[in-house]
Structure formats: C-alpha cells, structure tokens
Amino acid sequence: MVDSPLRRGIGWWRLPVLGVALLTSLLFYVPFLVVVATSWTETSFIIFPPQGFSPTWYSDVLQDPQWTDAFKVSLRVSAAGTVISVVLGTLGALALTRLRSRTARRWIRTLFIVPMAIPPVAYAVGLYSVNLEVAALGDNLALLILGEALLAMPYVFVMVSSGLSQADPALRPAASTLGASWPLIVWRIDLPMIAGHMLAGAVFAFAVIFDEVVLSVFLAPVGVKTLPLQMLDASQEALSPQLTAASTLVSMLAVLLLGAFSLYSNRRAARARRRARKATTA
C-alpha cells in the first residue's frame, strides 16, 4: 500500500479525521442543495422535497424591482467599497515595509487587522452615531460604503502583505542606489510584484462587502436596500421561494467569481513557471 503523507502524518487516525471532514462537508453542502432544490418548486411556499419543477421564482426575482434594485445597490456599494479597501490596504502594506522598527511594524500590523475582530454590530452602532451627528450622510450611501470598505480593508492588507513578504528585499535598495525615486520604485517594482495579491484581496473584499448585512441595517438610507438586507426582510415577512431563488443566484455568482479568479491565478502561475524555466535554460 502506498505510504502517503497523510498516513505518515497521522497514522491510522486518518479514518476518523476523514470521517469528521466528510460530515462537516455534508453539513455545509446539504443545506445549500436544499435551498437550490426548493427554488424550483411550483408551490408558493418553501417545501422539501419540492413539488413540481418550474423556473417561475427565478423569473419573479429577475423582474421584481425590489430585488433588482437591491442587487444594483449592492453592486454599487461593493464596487466602490472594494476600490477604497484595495487602495487603503495596499498603501498600508507598502508603508509598513518601509518602517525600520519591528515594534512599530508589529503594532501597526495589529491595528490594521483589528477590524476583523470587532463585532459588526458594535462597529455598526458606532457608525450609526456618526450618521446621526452628520446630517449630510443620512441621505446617501457614502457612510455605508466607507464603513464596508474599512471592514474589508484588513483582508486586502493581509493579502498584499503576504505578497510583499515574498519579494526580494534587495530590489528596493538596488533601485534606490541607481537613482530611482520612491514613487518610481513603487510603480515599477512593488506594484508588479503584488498585482496578483491585490486582485486576490479585491475578490475577498468584494465578497465580504456584498454579503454583509449588519451595516446595511443601520446605515442604509430610508427606502434603499442592499440585496442581503432585502433577503433579510423577505425571510421575516414570508418564506417564499423567491428567497431561495435569490440565494441560489447569489451563490452561483460567487462561484463564477471565484472560479474566474482561480482560472486567472492558475494561468498567471503557469506563465511565471514558464518564464522561470526560460531564465534557467538561457
């Protein structure tokens, strides 16, 4: 029998571990499959197993202004918040590499990651207090976008910091010795090295912002709903198959987004390997 790394690592305990992993996977996928199945039912309420097979509820979601408008609002908030979080997270990671004090780097890194540990409700209540004090922010999405961006920024910061840690530390001093200014070093050396990590951070930031509902409850203007907020309201009013149809569409969108990113990452890695082989054979 093949002496696999898994067997060498945990021995015969691998069978219980694999069993627990399988059960955990079922706990994740089975509810999702139930949601997908109930979205095709012909009845006007959620029932499993579904009765009949009809795409009516998908058509209703795509033609209902409440759902389409909420989807457009979520896209605007997610796109704007992602851009802000990528800019702030990337600038923070770049600035951190230029600090000489390890203590300062450690403290600043902690400050950038802290928003990931703050309870969203506490964060939303704090921003809501700001919203009450500044009347100009109450009728638009500015504070919601900024709040979502700050919530997603740590993910970008972590991804970009990971990319910078893999870079050759001698490149920047060499470029500076040759007379390059720091904006030129950032543009020609740093950004090309971390472009893939910035894209990965942007994907995570977009997903976090798009799915976030707590800030929308507190900061969305009156009469404006994001898609997660619309789904929350729909779940409280009546469990219609519209809700499961919308959930399925959002899940499929996430799968397509992550699949496209994975395909891009694989192609980028393949090109990098080909360039490395050419360099070694030249």
Automatic annotation (TrEMBL):
Membrane-spanning ranges: 12-40, 77-96, 108-129, 141-164, 198-223, 243-265
Compartments where found: Cell inner membrane; Cell membrane
Keywords noted in UniProt: Cell inner membrane, Cell membrane, Membrane, Transmembrane, Transmembrane helix, Transport
Location, primary (coarse class): membrane
Membrane-related topology note: Multi-pass membrane protein
InterPro entries registered for this protein in UniProt: MetI-like, MetI-like_sf
Limits of the ABC transmembrane type-1 domain: 71-262
Keyword Membrane annotated: yes
Family annotation (Pfam families): BPD_transp_1
Family statement drawn from the similarity comment of this UniProt entry: Belongs to the binding-protein-dependent transport system permease family.
Protein name: ABC transporter permease
Species annotation: Phytohabitans maris
